[in-house]
Every structure is written in C-alpha cells, then in structure tokens.
Design a protein that fits this description.
The chain is mostly helical. The chain contains eleven helices and no strands. The two termini are 29 Å apart.
C-alpha cells in the first residue's frame, strides 16, 4: 500500500538524517530515484518552496511529497492523508529519540559512549549537508543532478548565476539592502523566476 511505503520512506529519512533539514536532501534524492514520486527538478522546486515558507525543510518536503502522491492515488482527501502519513513518518523517529533521552537524560549526559557517538556523527552530518549543497548548486546553475552528468550533459544558464550574484551582493555588500527582511529577497527571486521563465533541465 502506497501510504505504508510513504511512512516507511520518510521514517528512514527522519531516523538517519542527522544534522537538520539540509541533511534530508541526500535521502530525498535517493527517494526520487527509487520511488519515482518526483524528479530532480521537482526536488529543487520543493527545496526552494520549503526554504521560503515557515517550518523545517524536511517537514515541508515530506508534507508536499505525501500530498502529491496521495492526490495521484485518490484525490484531495487522499492527498491530505498522504501528507499526514509522510510528515508523521518523518518526525516519529525524533519523537522516539527525544522521549528516550528525556527518560535517561542524566545517564546520557555523562555517558562517554554517547558523547563519542555524537562527536562521530558531526563529520557525517557535515558531509551530508555539503553533498546536498553541491547537488543544489549543480542543479540550479548547470542543470544536472550529480557531478558525473556535469562532464557530459551540462546546461549552463547565466541567468541563474546572475540572480545569485545580485542577491549575494544585495544581502552582503549594500548597506541599505542588508537591513531588509529576507522575505523581500525571496519574493524578488520568485518574481524574477516567473517573469524570465527560469527552469532547470532534468
């Protein structure tokens, strides 16, 4: 049943994506390849929307994917069910872990093995987040989903680079613009994308 698989896929993602929302992206990329629920282009759109709206990236993308898959399976009501199932699957591991830690907080705090485990997880989290960042850069600027395709199937679009450069300069080096709320830049980028028909080849 599609809802059981939704739950299981996002449960695995929530269980192993240590390091926050960006660490879920490699798992979402793998999910796209194994399930066919969405492609690399749609994932890039999901990340853009999830980062532009309230809530954690992982939860927002889980809700989006669950709703999309459920809608295909049986309409809007099934889409809502899919969104709930996928989101619950993603957050359940965190709830379980927090409950366990809360129960044995003092022992966990002083346990040298737990401390060592968390120190060991740090580089893994950095690696996952770095890999996700590289994937998004490749997809946004070159139109490919991984480094291997970059050598054979690169689609370079100066508009993407130009927009990124304008936003970087505006948010870092222009004093008056630096004080603006990030929402203005998000809306500006969205409008530019619509007006100039930005798209990422898959």
């Amino acid at each position: 049943m599609i809802y059981l698989r939704l739950f299981w896929e996002f449960f695995k993602t929530g269980l192993f994506s240590v390091g926050g929302g960006m660490a879920t992206i490699p798992f979402l990329q793998s999910m796209a390849e194994t399930t066919g629920w969405f492609n690399a282009n749609q994932l890039a759109d999901m990340i853009a929307v999830a980062e532009s709206t309230p809530g954690p990236l992982g939860v927002n993308t889980a809700t989006y994917v669950g709703y999309t898959v459920g809608t295909i399976d049986g309409g809007i009501l099934m889409g809502i069910l899919g969104a709930i199932v996928a989101t619950f699957g993603l957050v359940l591991p965190s709830i379980i872990v927090i409950c366990i830690i809360a129960t044995f907080l003092q022992k966990f705090r002083d346990n040298k093995y737990v401390k060592s485990a968390f120190y060991g997880l740090r580089p893994a989290s950095v690696g996952l987040i770095a890999a996700a960042g590289v994937s998004i850069v490749l997809l946004s600027f070159f139109g490919v989903s991984d480094i291997y395709k970059l050598l054979t199937d690169m689609h370079f679009d100066w508009r993407h680079i130009a927009l990124a450069a304008v936003l970087l300069v505006a948010t870092r080096y222009v004093p008056k613009l630096k004080k603006l709320h990030p929402l203005y830049f998000i809306v500006f980028a969205a409008v530019v994308g619509v007006v100039f028909g930005f798209s990422v080849p898959v």
